[in-house]
Design brief:
Order of helices and strands: EHEHEHEHEHEHHEEEEEEEHH
Strand content: 25-35%
Largest sheet: 8 strands, mixed
Shape: globular
Helix content: 25-40%
Distance between the termini: 44 Å
């Protein structure tokens, strides 16, 4: 499987570090170069890892060329633009994936598989705090907001209400209401401590995925039990899933429609 990569900055360089048997990034292009030749080549697919402001035009070019593609989140950063792109996409037959990275995270996938151990799910919490400030025009809510939204919707369905309030600095608290569940997220770039955590609370206990801890995934009931997860990476899983979707052996789990829906929800949040 031969892939091309557009964007050689922070996000793009991460793909170049991943080694997956049977998948190779054979062509690259910086975000400042003409990318059409790469998209129009005989590659099996392309990865769009450029600043958010360039996602729309590059995704549109990939759709027009019927080239399977992965695009980093947010899809475009604007709900109306993402909806317009989705309408173009729906008129064409092409594979597209959004890099909703936690959906491919081995610890989050193990959390999903073990949810039955805590009984009926009642609440999900997400903490994504302290990270480099984006300088490409992407706001903190566009940068961090998609993660708790798609995570909670993958576990609890579509929310009835999303509200937000500003905390100190650029940090934000999100609250989601579902029919009989709730979600809470605290996100931001300048929080005093670095946190990467998902907590799924059920009737009989909770599962905690703390990416900064030595024991990343634990089940807490009457006792605390470490949970097993695959020793791989999110990006490796993403590339394997992309290749399987191209071959037709799997269906996409992070679709363009999901990306457009999340962008619209981000736009609706009042701060």
């Amino acid at each position: 499987m031969r892939l091309g990569l557009i964007g050689l900055g922070k996000f793009g360089s991460n793909y170049l570090k991943i080694k997956v048997d049977g998948i190779e990034i054979t062509e690259t292009c910086s975000s400042t170069r003409d990318y059409h030749e790469l998209i129009d080549s005989d590659l099996d697919g392309v990865i769009i890892a450029t600043p958010t402001s360039l996602h729309y035009e590059m995704a549109e070019a990939a759709i027009a060329a019927h080239k399977p593609f992965i695009v980093e989140k947010p899809l475009t950063g604007h709900g109306s633009e993402s909806q317009k792109l989705l309408e173009i996409y729906n008129k064409n037959s092409v594979l597209a994936l959004i890099n909703f990275v936690y959906l491919f995270d081995p610890c989050f996938q193990a959390l999903q598989k073990n949810l039955n151990k805590v009984g009926k799910l009642q609440k999900v919490e997400f903490y994504g705090l302290q990270s480099p400030i984006r300088t490409d025009g992407t706001t903190v809510i566009q940068d961090w907001g998609p993660h708790p939204l798609y995570i909670m919707q993958s576990l609890m369905g579509k929310p009835n209400k999303i509200s937000a309030k500003k905390l100190d600095g650029d940090n934000i608290e999100l609250n989601l209401k579902f029919s009989n569940k709730e979600g809470k997220a605290i996100i931001g770039w300048t929080y005093p401590t670095r946190e990467r955590k998902i907590v799924a609370v059920g009737e009989r206990g909770k599962i905690v995925y703390d990416a900064t801890a030595n024991q990343k995934l634990i089940l807490e009931t009457n006792t605390t039990t470490p949970l097993e997860y695959e020793q791989t990476t999110s990006l490796a899983n993403l590339l394997l899933h992309f290749a399987a979707c191209i071959r037709g052996t799997k269906s996409p789990i992070a679709t363009l429609a999901m990306g457009a829906n999340i962008d619209q929800q981000i736009d609706s949040i009042q701060l």
